[in-house]
Amino acid sequence: MSDLSLIRNFSIIAHIDHGKSTLADRFIQICGGLTEREMEAQVLDSMDLERERGITIKAHSVTLYYTAKDGKTYQLNFIDTPGHVDFHYEVSRSLAACEGALLVVDAAQGVEAQSVANCYTAIEQGLEVMPVLNKIDLPQAEPERVKAEIESVIGIDATDAVACSAKSGIGVEDVLEALIHTIPSPEGDIEAPLQALIIDSWFDNYLGVVSLVRVKHGRIKKGDKVLVKSTGKTHLVDSVGVFNPKHTETADLKAGEVGFIIAGIKDIHGAPVGDTLTLSTTPDVSSLPGFQKVKPQVYAGLFPVSSDDFEDFREALQKLTLNDAALQFEPESSEALGFGFRIGFLGMLHMEIIQERLEREYDLDLITTAPTVVFEVVTKGGEIIYVDNPSLLPDPSMIEEMREPIVRANILVPQDHLGSVITLCIEKRGVQHDMIFLGTQVQVVYDLPMNEVVLDFFDRLKSVSRGYASLDYSFDRFQPAKLVRLDVLINGEKVDALALIVHRDNAAFKGRQLVEKMKDLIPRQMFDVAIQAAIGGQIVARSTVKALRKNVLAKCYGGDASRKKKLLEKQKAGKKRMKQVGSVEIPQDAFLAVLKVDN
Ligand SMILES: Nc1nc2c(ncn2[C@@H]2O[C@H](COP(=O)(O)OP(=O)(O)OP(=O)(O)O)[C@@H](O)[C@H]2O)c(=O)[nH]1
User: What ipTM does this complex have?
Assistant: First the structure.
């Protein structure tokens, strides 16, 4: 197919759980991409972990052929995008490949902050945004109210918004018809030299690096020699094709189309996302504007429970970065935990996912330290350094000024819950920037310390608003703040891996909460365990885990062999996620106690 007027490239943007993936599955079904049997729930979420958690992590593209009511067959290329705030950058990437976007809004829930943010990104990138009201099968659906909300909150015309139920299938064909008329076809010149944008690259164990590209001009086929503009390297194209949604090779990819290229590249750094491809015969083709590089927002130390696993751990991380360009790591050594890695993540969800993948796919037992954001420190010598590890904070006498990262947070909340959301923002040291009443919802804009936001703010926000408030935020600036390091001592020994950077005004309070929480999380041992919190050498809180009484240990001796074995196994299992620090065994939970103290 080479008639550009018969191609539509679009993304689906929506808040989590508003039904993107379900709608995508319906499209596939209507266009006959898969048989009923292959139509296993949520085909697009192909990673096991994605399916289990019911969230979309990686962007996927699907090419479908739809015969419309006008009798013509259209090529629909759609890209599914993740909805969670941690993966926001994937959204803008996907949008760069499209001329339009469907804004899917749950007709029972209404507009949420994430959809607003993504919608603005789409509009900024010049896309045609087409609103779709989903879940109209639900009795509590209020399509008219939600239409009005789309107009007042986002500011786009929603009078003709198509209503559908992705679950039952009602109205889904109308969505396809509407998108053919609303979303413009791509522009491009098939006869011009190849110019293609890499939207995504990932590592496949069998195929090597697979790159998803949008061809702007020209064409590419198997056997071509492709030039990666940023690296200057050329590679022989092994195959090109589309996902329909199965991996399907095609003769070529042409201007206006979206598909994959496999060219024997060994790791994703060889085909960087946002890069431009051309043919080796036309090296002068200009580069397309790429994407903003993503920077990790949260850092944590990860340490193998058994030091023998260190090399395996390194290998596993190297393999994961083949897949996940956002993941960054460097070796870290801790007096308490030995050798490990300091890893940068996009957010807490990203961190959980990586930790889970390391444990499941690579069979590693790891201890994670409390996550932290990056602080900007000006030394007395006038040097600016970035600290992503509290234990590496210079001595206070060397510090001229400390600055913490501030985010601009957009919160959408129904009026009824406004009060509790504001209370929460104040508790988190937020400064109000703006408040706009939009129908039944209120949009509040706060500047908040990132440190307070990344840890548990999202969960707290959900709970104080009974699930109704939604959040979108992005880094704004570094701002001077009174920050101190809070050290934790176990039986008098400072444990570097437990140190935190906190605000001075609530440092003592945080210290008390932390030692109390840790007392509950550290199991009783054969001796008393003293837990202390200190600021600059001064103890601000203390609690004690009392020793076990002797007769409890008596069980370990005598008795029959099988019982003894069971006991040993139990001990071993219990040891799994524990780390010996000095003479004290500390479980994983205690390292993350700070995440649990705020409530
Ligand atoms: N009643 C009803 N439920 C729906 C409809 N569409 C989707 N759902 C349900 O809503 C939930 C979320 O749907 P998904 O398609 O996974 O949502 P998503 O937006 O893709 O979520 P992420 O992939 O995490 O961003 C699922 O339990 C679906 O079964 C609908 O039209 N009606």
Answer: 0.96
